[in-house]
């Protein structure tokens, strides 16, 4: 089958797909294309110009590639779940981490979203479970306690005889507020250890360029030499 080639080199809007330009984006001469561009531009970090480039690329690709692309997006919404235990995104009711008996079932690491799960998993240094909050408390963004899975976390700690909860939320005011709220909720479990990930100087950083809060925390939370 001959690959459908969408020729836009001679079109009046070719230049607007060619990268940064001083000229504002011009009217798109197809309502259908414009609608697709508008939808793509709703993605985070994607402007109208990039959206147009993506739309033209999709128009240019083969029918099978286009079907695979659209199919992957359609399945993203219909075939994924939130793990019933940790609330991470999963293809199965229980995610691979939660259903792995080799993971330490007594430790739960609390994170904001799936990206943090992936980041910590990529370190290869953690063997416990996770709990994905789905955000942090942020009244300015309209995110309250009821929007997060804090209640489910408390139930898990009670049901699973958890021994340690590691708070690995962002080092922002919202992250700290959420840490404090969760810590208070977990005070009802006397034997439970609540820890937070170490905050300090990044590897390769020069001390004289570190901000005072980070450097101060690094001194207060110092660890035995050779421990890390
Ligand atoms: Zn899970």
Describe what this molecule looks like in 3D:
The protein has 228 residues and is an alpha/beta fold. The protein folds into two domains: 15-78, RecR Domain 1 (Helicase, Ruva Protein, domain 3), CATH 1.10.8; 82-197, 3-Layer(aba) Sandwich (Dna Topoisomerase Vi A Subunit, Chain: A, domain 2), CATH 3.40.1360. Helices cover 36% and strands 9% of the residues. It has helices at residues 31-40, 48-60, 63-78, 114-123, 150-159, 173-186, 212-220; strands at residues 81-82, 89-90, 107-111, 129-132, 164-167, 193-196. The chain has a four-stranded parallel beta sheet with strand order 4-3-5-6. Strands 1-2 form a two-stranded antiparallel sheet. A hairpin with a 6-residue loop joins β1 (81-82) and β2 (89-90). α1 (31-40) crosses α2 (48-60). The radius of gyration is 24 Å and the shape is globular. Mean pLDDT is 88; it is low at 1-22. The structure holds zinc ion (ZN). Zinc ion binds at residues 83, 85-86, 88, 94-95, 97-98.
Topology:
Elements: H1 31-40, H2 48-60, H3 63-78, E1 81-82, E2 89-90, E3 107-111, H4 114-123, E4 129-132, H5 150-159, E5 164-167, H6 173-186, E6 193-196, H7 212-220
Helix pairs in contact: 1-2
Bound molecules: zinc ion (ZN).
Zinc ion (ZN) is lined by residues 83, 85-86, 88, 94-95, 97-98.
